[in-house]
Write a structure and sequence with these properties.
Elements lengths: L15 E2 L8 E2 L2 H14 L4 E4 L6 H14 L5 E2 L7 H11 L8 H5 L3 E5 L3 H4 L1 H12 L3 E5 L12 E3 L6 H14 L5 H7 E2 L1 H8 L4 H8 L3 H13 L3 E5 L1 H4 L4 H15 L8 E4 L6 H6 L6 E2 L3 E2 L3 H11 L11 H10 L4 E5 L3 H4 L3 H9 L3 E6 L11 E4 L9 E4 L4 E5 L12 H11 L9 H11 L8 H7 L2 E2 L22 H4 L3 E2 L18 E6 L24 E3 L1 H7 L5 E6 L4 E8 L7 E5 L13 E4 L6 E2 L3 E13 L2
Parallel strand pairs: 3-4, 3-13, 5-6, 5-9, 6-7, 8-19, 9-10, 13-14, 14-15, 20-24, 21-23
Antiparallel strand pairs: 1-2, 1-15, 11-12, 16-17, 17-18, 20-27, 22-23, 22-27, 25-26
Helix pairs in contact: 1-19, 2-19, 2-20, 3-13, 7-10, 7-11, 7-13, 10-11
């Protein structure tokens, strides 16, 4: 079968500007480009937002959020964390006061049970999955909870193929079974949690038989997982976007956390909660304060003491309210109250749900600055494009992975043409807007961050290099903390235990985009091993696994629609339609289809997805769209 050639993106090597909207770009010098960018941003002060980059260093994200708060006077700063794992941060913060995963990767190798819930880690997080495989080789059992029988599920002892959007009924039924069979860790619940009685009432209706009807999973399989998880001495509960990319993603996360509270599978070695982050520094971006409600180190903007600390260090006044998150910034573009955006290393024109709407909103801006390594679809909409360095190969600094491990990254190659480091560009813009910041290098930025974030204070560059990475929190430069978080919950002294972890009282709320006779198929989206996000970086490199974008159907649905592998069909939702060839996958069940976002220049899957957002985290429901498949009048088969 012929593979479709992806659009090949070439590196940006010189600044680009437009003389007016509708005119093509022309090459410009750095002074002209920075002056134009500064003038456009200055005119939009008070109606400005900044998108920071989850692939850039911690140091860049720190300077970017400082730029938003000090130079532009706003907390309107966010990143692609909003698109994927903001519900994880919100859910974990609500339960434990901290938004990071609670365990280390090494603990997955030393646990007794691994639950992969809504996570095809074999494809989406292959490095982490190697730790899972080591755990299995060491004797751990694994269960997979996922609508698809994924490559990850092939390694599982049990696969629970639930209906899309029924994670809360599944979790509640597991919780009820644990309670009714006397498997609750009552000592932990009494000393470390709150709200157990209300939680018990909440899950009581969710019998195994009712859960089977709603989720589609046999009652016996739900019971088996409940007993395996509760009886395990140590257990790791891991999830990814199958849990978070829903209109109630934060509630989904809270429902899973409840199971760890019931059983005491948190706050000790080998037992914990692992949200698997998808990009190299999506954890670090949030840690550095590139989010609208937290300073670096997850310090609350509404806390007067925290504000005073940062105001004193930065010689500024911080707005005493939360800024707009990414979702809210796009809504403000629609309303006309957000007039300018500085977009660093993000491609929302193709990564946002309902991509046609996202492009229309970006076009409505008075001014758009894009700083990137490629001329992405978002950059093509900009007034000024600034060529940056690749954070993983051309920049000095640090990044933070899913286990909260801060690691050094170093420049290995020289950037092409006139491309500049992100921080250098930010400092040039800040200077033109009246703020002469002087940092001799990335270490100077890191040391400023350390002085303001207790969780990072003990991590000097020298120590990071010596230890080959350190997990936060690390408040003391002379010692290392345990690899797991929230050990305080097991302390005998109530004062040391501190704040109790509350059970989340969350209720089932089905997907917004309902299937019906017109749109009878449930589309869920995800990633493949061979490609990365919108394909801008991975599309230029050949892979023997890559076959372009397809709509994947089960054999029964393909037969019902009279289509064969390679035949092009029209895939339609209530928002738009695309043409895509068919692929048949026996891992899917009737009524369920799968697509990715990796080839938007060829098949723009996000034209189909719905912008139904989690009210707490702002993440859209990428995982649950209703679609139909239409056979084309004359069959088009790609050969």
């Amino acid at each position: 079968m012929r593979k479709r050639d992806p659009r090949i993106y070439t590196r940006l090597t010189h600044p680009l500007v437009r003389d007016s909207r509708g005119e093509p770009f022309r090459q410009a010098g750095w002074d002209e480009a920075l002056n134009r960018a500064a003038a456009g941003l200055r005119a939009a002060r008070g109606a400005f937002g900044l998108f920071s980059c989850a692939r850039a260093t911690n140091e860049m994200n720190y300077v970017a959020q400082k730029f938003a708060r000090v130079v532009m006077g706003t907390n309107n700063v966010d990143s692609c964390n909003r698109t994927c794992h903001a519900p994880s941060v919100a859910g974990l913060s609500a339960a434990f006061g901290s938004g990071g995963g609670t365990s280390s990767y090494a603990e997955v190798e030393e646990t007794d049970l691994v639950v992969m819930w809504g996570s095809n880690a074999r494809f989406a997080h292959p490095i982490f999955f190697q730790h899972v495989l080591r755990g299995i080789r060491n004797g751990a059992r694994m269960y997979a909870v996922d609508p698809r029988r994924t490559s990850t599920a092939e390694w599982a002892e049990g696969w629970l193929g639930l209906n899309v959007g029924t994670d809360i009924p599944m979790a509640h039924a597991i919780g009820r079974e644990i309670i009714h069979t006397g498997l609750v860790n009552h000592a932990f619940v009494r000393r470390a949690t709150s709200g157990f009685e209300e939680y018990t009432r909440l899950v009581e209706p969710w019998t195994l038989s009712l859960a089977e009807k709603v989720t589609g999973v046999p009652a016996s399989a739900i019971r088996e997982l409940a007993h395996a998880y509760a009886r395990a001495e140590r257990a790791q509960l891991c999830w990814t976007l199958g849990i978070t990319e829903h209109h109630n993603g934060t509630d989904n996360v809270r429902a899973l956390i409840n199971l760890s509270l019931l059983t005491g599978h948190v706050g000790r070695h080998g037992s914990g909660l692992q949200p698997l982050r998808g990009q190299n520094n999506v954890q670090g971006g949030g840690d550095m304060g590139a989010i609208p409600n937290r300073f670096p180190g997850f310090q609350d903007i509404l806390d007067p003491d925290a504000r005073l600390k940062f105001e004193t260090a930065w010689d500024t006044v911080i707005e005493p309210h939360y800024g707009l998150n990414l979702t809210e910034m796009f809504e403000a573009m629609e309303e006309g109250t957000l007039k300018a955006v500085y977009c660093i290393g993000e491609n929302p024109a193709q990564s946002e749900a309902d991509s046609e709407q996202a492009v229309r909103r970006l076009r409505a801006l008075d001014f758009l600055v894009v700083q990137d390594i490629f001329l992405t679809r978002t950059a093509e909409l900009a007034d000024v494009v600034l060529p940056a360095t690749a954070g993983w190969a051309e920049t000095e600094g640090t990044t933070t992975n899913s286990e909260r491990r801060v690691q050094r990254v170093r420049a290995a190659v020289t950037p092409p043409g006139e491309a500049r480091e992100d921080i250098d560009i930010l400092l040039g813009l800040a200077a033109r807007l009246g703020h002469e910041w002087k940092y001799t290098d990335s270490e100077a930025v890191w040391n400023e961050l350390r002085s303001l974030s207790p969780d990072h204070y003990g991590m000097t560059y020298a120590r990071l290099e010596k230890e080959q990475g350190i997990q936060w929190p690390c408040p003391d430069p002379t010692r290392l903390e345990p690899t797991y978080l929230h050990g305080r919950l097991w302390a005998d002294d109530p004062a040391e235990r501190g704040r109790r972890a509350p059970f989340g009282i969350v209720r089932h709320d089905p997907p917004v985009d309902l299937t019906d006779e017109t749109y009878p198929i449930r589309l869920t989206t995800g990633r493949r091993l061979d490609s990365y996000n919108t394909g801008v970086q991975s599309g230029g490199f050949a892979s023997p696994l890559r076959r372009g974008e397809y709509v994947e159907l089960c054999p029964e649905d393909a037969e019902r629609h009279g289509v064969v592998v390679g035949e092009e069909v029209r895939v339609s939702s209530r928002r738009g339609s695309v043409l895509a060839p068919v692929w048949i996958d026996t891992a899917l069940r009737p009524g369920l289809a799968f697509m990715t976002m990796h080839f938007p220049d060829d098949v723009d899957t996000n034209r189909l997805t719905i912008e139904a957002n989690c009210p707490i985290a702002g993440t859209a429901e990428f995982k649950a769209s209703a679609i139909r498949i239409d056979k084309l009048p004359a069959a088009h088969v790609r050969s």
